[in-house]
Amino acid sequence: MPKSGNRFQVPRISDAVASSLERRILEGSLKPGDRLPPERELAIELGVSRPSLREAIQKLASKGMVQSRQGGGTYVTDRLESSFFDPWQDLLGAHPNLGEDLLEFRRMLEGQAAEWAAERATEADLLRLTQAFNMMNEAFDADDLALRSSADIAFHQAIGEATHNVLIGHLSAALLRLMHDNIRLNLSELKSIPAAISLLKSQHAEIHTAICDRKPAAARAAAETHIDFVRESLAQTIRSVARRETAARRLNTEFSEPLSS
Predict the structure, then answer these.
(1) At 65, phi and psi to the nearest 5?
(2) Computed over its alpha carbons, how large is the radius of gyration of the chain?
(3) Which of 98, 146, 151, 181 is the least buried, fewest Cβ under 10 Å from its Cβ?
(4) In the CATH hierarchy, which fold is given to the domain comprising 80-252?
(5) What sign for the dihedral angle of Cα 173, 113, 135, 34?
């Protein structure tokens, strides 16, 4: 315990409370957009006075970790993820070739995440992963692109959080946000190909099974195989979209020009 001279310094209660809430944000128990419980309930849960709790929340607000919103309530911000997400989103839009680098990085990150999840996941983690997997399967059976995309992201995020590595959890979330438009585009193109959707479902099933069976090497291999498929199918999707756009421009040009006599 830190001390000054011959006297020990007792940590302030508000510092301990701020540290506890910050840990919940780091580990993903409190996610961006989550509202903190009402002040009275949270003070009782943490066993502290409401003034100490208010001071702790002010400390987090000064770090940009939480913010108060008009109409009441304190919410977790996305600062940990947006600091990575925002600049890269602009760069990705200006330099489409970065997409390949992004997928290459995602392959490395998700392969490692799947391996560590198989080694480290608790029973609670496996339950959450299975719930996300089941919801994803239901979403893939439904004709709702937005639902498919969000469910796909939630499944991969559950894997990232099951690694119990704070950086992987938050980097996964930021990376998946960055990839969101590409994921939707890819799923939009693939939904017209039943075999492709079936293959995606089987790939996710292999990842899920390997993690639940505690097989790290198999989990990594399944995750990398999945990302390899995503990379190839996304490349085909982009080429397909480009061909359609080119054909449409040619069509519009031909019929907008007057016919020569």
Answers:
(1) -85, -30
(2) 23
(3) 146
(4) Four Helix Bundle (Hemerythrin (Met), subunit A) (1.20.120)
(5) negative
CB 111 within 8 A of CB 103: no
Q: Do domains 11-76 and 80-252 have the same CATH topology?
A: no
Q: How confident is the model at residue 242 (pLDDT cuts 50, 70, 90)?
A: low
> 36's torsion region: left (phi>0), alpha (psi -120 to 50) or beta?
beta
Q: Provide the token pair at 19.
A: 């540290």
Domain ranges of the chain: 11-76, 80-252
Q: What burial letters (b/e) apply to 106-134, b meaning 16+ CB within 10 Å?
A: bbebbbbbbbbbbeebeeebbebbeebbe
Question: If one looks up domain 11-76 in CATH, what number appears?
Answer: 1.10.10.10
Residue-level length of the chain: 261
Encoded tokens for 143: 């004709």
